[in-house]
Design a protein that fits this description.
The complex is a heterodimer of chains A (514) and B (270). Chain A has 514 residues and is mainly α. Helix content of chain A is 57%, strand content 8%. In chain A, strand 1 and strand 2 form a beta hairpin. The chains are: A mainly alpha (514), B mainly alpha (270).
């Protein structure tokens, strides 16, 4: 039995269901599998989600936006209140996960969907109500920032309200919430807001300039531009006056304030104000240019003999109608357009039997080897000869392995390397390799070996100059040491006192680079 | 007609099918284009040879060479599924293609002007579609119509709504823009146009401006716009170009902003 029209009565049910649907993703967080799987029992995820929505709503009003990192940090702060014993990384993980759930990153179009029944003249039907809570939008520089959707503000931030999509209520709720909860340095906020406003005007004016360069008829000077230009001028004038006055006041306050924190805030405010004034100046230049540019484009585009054309008007005849079509019906026309626009594509295979034969031929000729991308010849050309032979590598390793615990200078090792091993003819360059290895030991102390208590060869600079016909720099002291394992109790980590290394000397290679 | 003539005609079609082939970079192609313009019987032969492939000659230009269009029967026409494998992104991608063309050639006469060069950026295309979608949303909200699609039939949702809901940008774990963000979809559409030789990206201007080539204008003018108009007409939708929805197209020129315009006294003086 209905006291009113059934359709009107059902409309109220539908509206309330829409409001309740927005609550579901938030409340659902605490019963999600991820919470138990990751051991986040102590956290109240739904409340943290509300904190995130609050934070995004409070820090973004007309035009400002907040990045995801900042929201994660804020949520982590609340998480710390819930679980003081949790680790910082865990809290950040919780924060990141909640934000991603609120954006709904699992869905390609980032929307939550709730089937909701509706009743209208055609009878009862169930429709999918798509909604979002946090949205990713581009900020002034095109990077992703977060904003709260109106649905989320109305339901989650304000109160339960019937008209979920009302922008007016959303704006009022945000303002009330700001007044109630946030303590904002008014001046700074006002300045930041004015700067954003200037940016917005500047973007609008640049857009118009681009549009009028394409077509002067695309914008209506009397209806849109004139009014907006007036507004922008008023804005620049009012803000410039206010900010010049504020800058003076900041200067006065700085002179009398002793408190370090306040001074810093004032200095910040001064910097923002200076930036604001710069922006306003840029905006003024844009405003000055707009009128002459419009006249110039008008001369160029309008006062010419009209061309006779029978072409399709892409926007009026194609884009506007197709936007209003359902996705399924739009597919045919749009696909036809795209296919025609791209023209013919080069076929991959013109004649299938040819391709088949070619495949077979390759398999016959090279039964087991994979097809080489480069020929052998090309490889030979590109390969570098190794500078040192394997025997030389071995000799150098042998020389370094034989270093005594008492230590030996690089010059001695070089002399040793220049001696011919018995029964081997002169191998030029072993001394160079030894010098390289010692230099490497000086730069990279084998810390892990020392920490494990193994014997290791280290090179240190004890201040001696290398006197050698081929090489210059420091005559490193090379010695083999064995350190106490790190876990051992007390004492110096090294077994023997090591002369304190001075600052790294000149590179060992100098006179003769090979 | 000799065998050499046939070879020339088919060679020209092969050149037109190859990506990135332009007369300026190939003397053979340049010679064939010149021959097409001087020798009517050769031109006719090229048309016939194209017809054999179910292709039509849309135009021949000394910069772009031979410009071919596909017919409905042609096996050489592009598959839309290959361009956009994700079915959820496909409508948005196709819409982006139309929006790119619309923004590149805002007035019908731009399609006729041989010297006209269209310039677009990914963010401008995205903003442009959003602007139109928002206008529709405001109109429909004012009319109080219900817009949600029936459950289980997401294909009945209006295209503007699907576009408006899709995030313009976003951030993935690797600090990239998600593949499904609408700006990324527009970027992909532009990239494909560059790959097919219809546009090039202006290097080093920071915002990523794409500039149209002659070939793109001819494809849109001679084929794409007409095909789509036909498809829309088949659905019972046909509109005349008119300025009834806000944008004015054929009105007399707006008043010159003279005295009523911005009377600019530098406001910073005081």
């Amino acid at each position: 039995m209905f006291f009113e029209e059934p359709i009107a009565a059902y409309e109220s049910l539908t509206a309330r269901m829409k409001a309740l649907a927005v609550v579901r993703p938030v409340v659902g967080l605490d019963s999600s599998k991820a919470k138990t799987e990751r051991g986040w029992h102590g956290y109240r995820l739904a409340e943290l989600a509300l904190a995130a929505v609050d934070f995004v709503a409070l820090s973004s009003d007309m035009g400002t936006m907040v990045r995801q990192d900042a929201v994660v940090r804020e949520v982590a702060r609340y998480a710390a209140l819930q679980m003081p014993e949790g680790t910082e990384s865990e809290r950040e993980a919780v924060g990141t996960w909640i934000i991603e759930r609120l954006i709904n990153v699992e869905e390609r179009d980032r929307a939550f969907r709730q089937p909701i029944g509706t009743l209208n003249e055609e009878g009862f039907s169930v429709r999918d109500f798509p909604f979002q809570i946090l949205r990713e939008v581009p900020d002034e520089v095109g990077r992703a920032a977060l904003v709260v959707t109106e649905a989320a503000i109305n339901v989650l931030l304000h109160a339960i309200d019937i008209d979920v999509a009302s922008a007016q209520i959303a704006a009022e709720a945000r303002l009330t919430a700001m007044l109630k909860r946030a303590r904002i340095e008014d001046a700074l906020q006002a300045a930041l807001h004015a700067r954003r406003q200037s940016l917005r005007y500047a973007k609008q004016l640049t857009d118009w300039r681009a549009a009028m360069q394409r077509s002067v008829r695309a914008i209506s000077w009397t209806e849109q531009v004139d009014e907006e230009v007036e507004l922008a001028l008023d804005h620049v004038k009012a803000r410039s006056d206010a900010e010049t006055a504020m800058q003076q006041r900041v200067g006065e306050l700085l002179e009398i304030t002793e408190d370090e924190r306040k001074r810093q805030q004032l200095i910040d405010l001064g910097a923002v104000l200076a930036d604001c004034l710069n922006r306003h100046a840029g905006l003024t230049v844009l405003l000055m240019q707009l009128g002459p540019e419009f006249r110039r484009q008008q001369d160029r585009q309008v006062f010419v003999i009209p061309a006779l054309h029978t072409r399709v008007h892409l926007e009026d005849q194609l884009l506007r109608p197709v936007l209003e079509l359902p996705i399924d019906s739009a597919d045919g026309p749009l696909a036809a357009f795209t296919r025609a626009a791209f023209g013919p594509r080069r076929p991959h295979v013109l004649y299938l039997p040819d391709f088949f034969a070619a495949l077979c031929r390759i398999t016959e000729n090279q039964p087991l080897e994979p097809a080489a991308v480069q020929t052998d010849h090309e490889w030979d050309e590109s390969a570098d000869e190794p500078l040192f032979t394997p025997e030389q590598e071995q000799d150098a390793a042998g020389i370094l392995a034989g270093v005594p615990a008492a230590g030996v200078h690089l010059s001695t090792l070089l002399r040793q390397a220049r001696l011919n091993p018995p029964g081997v003819s002169q191998r030029w360059g072993t001394d160079h390799l030894v010098a390289l290895r010692v230099q490497e030991l000086f730069r990279n102390i084998p810390v892990s070996q020392l920490a494990e208590g193994k014997e290791a060869v280290v090179a240190i600079d004890d201040g001696a100059e290398l006197d050698d016909p081929r090489f210059g720099g420091s005559d490193f002291l090379v010695l083999s040491v064995r350190a106490e394992p790190v876990n051992a109790v007390g004492g110096s980590p090294a077994a023997r006192p090591i002369p304190s290394p001075r600052q790294p000397g000149a590179p060992v290679l100098a006179k003769d680079q090979v | 007609m000799t065998n050499d003539d046939v070879a020339d005609a088919t060679r020209m079609i092969a050149m037109a099918l190859g990506r990135g082939r332009v007369p300026a970079r190939s003397s053979e192609y340049a010679r064939l284009v010149q021959r097409y313009q001087r020798d009517p019987s050769y031109a006719h032969m090229v048309h016939m040879a194209a017809k054999g492939f179910d292709l039509t000659v849309l135009g021949v230009d000394h910069r772009s060479g031979l410009i071919l269009g596909t017919t409905a029967e042609s096996s050489l026409s592009l598959s839309v599924t290959e361009l956009v494998p994700a079915p959820l992104d496909r409508p948005l991608y196709l819409l982006a293609q139309l929006a790119i063309a619309t923004l590149a050639f805002p007035r019908p006469q731009d399609l006729d002007d041989d010297e006209f060069v269209g310039r677009v950026t990914a963010s401008a295309v995205d903003d442009y579609v959003r602007e139109h979608a928002l206008a529709i949303e405001q109109r429909i909200t004012a009319a109080g119509e219900d817009q949600d699609p029936p459950t289980g039939q997401p294909g009945l949702e209006a295209l503007w709504r699907a576009y408006l809901r899709r995030s313009a940008t976003g951030r993935t774990k690797g600090d990239n823009t998600p593949f499904a963000a609408s700006r990324k979809i527009v970027e992909r559409a532009l990239k494909h146009l560059v790959e097919y030789g219809f546009m090039h990206k202006v290097p080093g201007d920071g915002v990523g401006t794409y500039v149209t080539h002659v070939k793109y204008r001819v494809q849109i003018r001679e084929l794409a716009a007409g095909e789509m108009l036909g498809e829309l007409a088949a659905l019972g939708i046909s509109r005349l170009p008119s300025g009834d929805l806000g944008r004015t197209t054929d009105e007399p020129a707006p008043p010159t902003p003279g005295a009523s315009g911005p009377t600019l006294t530098p406001p910073l003086a005081d």
